[in-house]
Design a protein that fits this description.
129 residues; four-stranded mixed β-sheet; 19% strand; 4 strands
Length: 129
C-alpha cells in the first residue's frame, strides 16, 4: 500500500473514532438526563445546555442554582474541557454549585452520580427554605 492509501486509512479511522466519541458522549449525557428525570430527582427541574456567557453547562437547575457538567475523561479540568477553571470560579462566585462528572464515572456508577446530585439538591433546598 502506498503512503497516500495509508494516510487515507488513518484519516478514516480518526473520523470513525470522533463519530463514535460524539455518539458515546451524547448517550452518556442522555443517561444523566434520564437520572435527572427519574423518580428520585423528578421534582427538581433541570434544563439542558444552559448558557452562561461563553460557557454552556450540560444541565442546570435554576431554582437551586446547580450546574452539572459532563467531561470526557481526558478533558477533565483541562483547557479542552467544556468549562474552564476561570468560568467555574465565576459561576461559583455567583452562587452556582458546579458539579463535574467524568464520563467514566457516569458509566461505572450512575447511581452514585444520581445520589451526589440529589445530595446537593437537598442541601441547597434546606438553604433556600
Amino acid at each position: 500500500m502506498n503512503n497516500a492509501g495509508q494516510k487515507q486509512q488513518v484519516s478514516e479511522r480518526k473520523n470513525t473514532i470522533l463519530i463514535n466519541n460524539k455518539e458515546e458522549s451524547k448517550l452518556i449525557k442522555d443517561k444523566v438526563w434520564d437520572l435527572l428525570q427519574s423518580e428520585t430527582l423528578s421534582e427538581y427541574r433541570f434544563d439542558r445546555n444552559k448558557k452562561f456567557g461563553p460557557v454552556t453547562v450540560d444541565f442546570y437547575c435554576e431554582i437551586y442554582r446547580i450546574a452539572v457538567v459532563v467531561d470526557k475523561d481526558e478533558e477533565f479540568y483541562t483547557s479542552a474541557s467544556s468549562i474552564d477553571p476561570e468560568s467555574q470560579t465565576e459561576m461559583e462566585q455567583m452562587g452556582i454549585v458546579v458539579l463535574r462528572f467524568r464520563e467514566s464515572e457516569i458509566i461505572k456508577n450512575p447511581y452514585i452520580v444520581q445520589r451526589t446530585i440529589g445530595f446537593w439538591l437537598k442541601e441547597r433546598e434546606f438553604r433556600y427554605l
